[in-house]
Write a structure and sequence with these properties.
Structural class: alpha+beta
Helix content: 10-25%
Number of strands: 17
Strand content: 25-35%
Largest sheet: 5 strands, mixed
Distance between the termini: 173 Å
């Protein structure tokens, strides 16, 4: 190849390079635009646990049998650690809801159940290095903070502790049952002021809705039964408790029946101090006075 020819080819090649570069630039840009964006790979970060503030939502007020007794002021509890007699402590919960424990000092226990408190004591003893694997137990020795008040015509009126979920019938049974002078119904007054009149027979044989659960602070009152009076020519005069569908005839039978001198034709009923016109099938009202006169021979 001649020198002139080589020179011409070199000049042509030199002028062609910029054109090729310019021609490729738009294509490269389009390819870069069309290509999917790949997110860079990031190593997983280390997550640090952050304490969560306790919820301010109101706690449920309906206790269940699984919750257990909730510890409160004036309760006497015993806290011990399995195999560690030096830790065993029996103390009354202070009015501020706290007790003093060995090693741990003053601890807030108000609102905790024995199970939750035992778990908390075990955790704190282990965290403090006092024991390797402590097993704490909590026993309520004396129930004083959570109770139902039982008043009226029951064998043992007073305070009945509620160390679990109880129904009205159970509380009445723990109070010794109704006296013979008790009315056939029970008044349940809730802490919020709601008042329920409960039929005693339904408490025994009715459904669960007829025998509601009681809560700490509730009051149960068994009023004295309404009565009527009967005297005169009957075998057992006296005062008697009103019963359902009590008639004059049933009242005479309740009083032992008529004496040989008595006459069912001479039965007089006084209501509110005034004589009332009644028959043997008339209903007896509370406070009625029934007088049976002698027969006329």
């Amino acid at each position: 190849m001649s020198s002139a020819r080589r020179f011409i080819l070199a000049v042509i090649a030199a002028f062609s390079l910029p054109a090729i570069s310019v021609a490729q630039t738009p294509a490269a840009t389009a390819a870069a635009t069309a290509a999917p964006t790949v997110a860079p790979t990031v190593a997983p970060a280390t997550v640090t646990a952050v304490p969560v503030a306790p919820s301010t939502a109101p706690a449920a007020t309906t206790p269940t049998a699984d919750e257990g007794y909730v510890i409160g002021p004036e309760d006497v509890i015993e806290v011990s650690v399995l195999g560690q007699p030096e830790f065993r402590t029996q103390a009354r919960v202070e009015t501020d809801g706290s007790i003093a424990l060995p090693f741990l000092g003053k601890q807030q226990v108000n609102g905790q159940t024995p199970l939750s408190l035992a778990a908390a004591v075990s955790s704190r003893l282990k965290a403090g290095g006092y024991y390797t694997n402590p097993v704490a137990t909590v026993t309520v020795v004396s129930f004083a903070s959570r109770y139902v008040i039982v008043l009226g015509e029951v064998a043992q009126p007073g305070l009945q502790p509620v160390n679990r979920s109880y129904r009205v019938s159970e509380i009445i049974a723990r109070a010794g049952g109704l006296k013979p002078s008790g009315a056939p119904h029970v008044i349940l007054r809730r802490v919020n002021g709601q008042e329920l009149k409960l039929d005693f027979k339904k408490l025994a044989v009715g459904s669960e809705s007829d025998d509601p659960v009681v809560y700490p602070g509730d009051k149960l009152f068994v009023p004295e039964a309404e009565t009527f009076f009967i005297y005169g020519q009957v075998n057992a005069p006296g005062t008697f408790v009103m019963q359902e569908q009590m008639t004059v005839r049933k009242a005479l039978a309740r009083a032992g029946g008529l004496t040989p001198l008595g006459s069912d034709k001479r039965v007089q009923v006084y209501r509110n101090g005034q004589p009332a016109k009644v028959s043997l099938e008339s209903p007896v009202g509370p406070g009625d006075v029934i007088v049976v006169g002698e027969r006329i021979f």
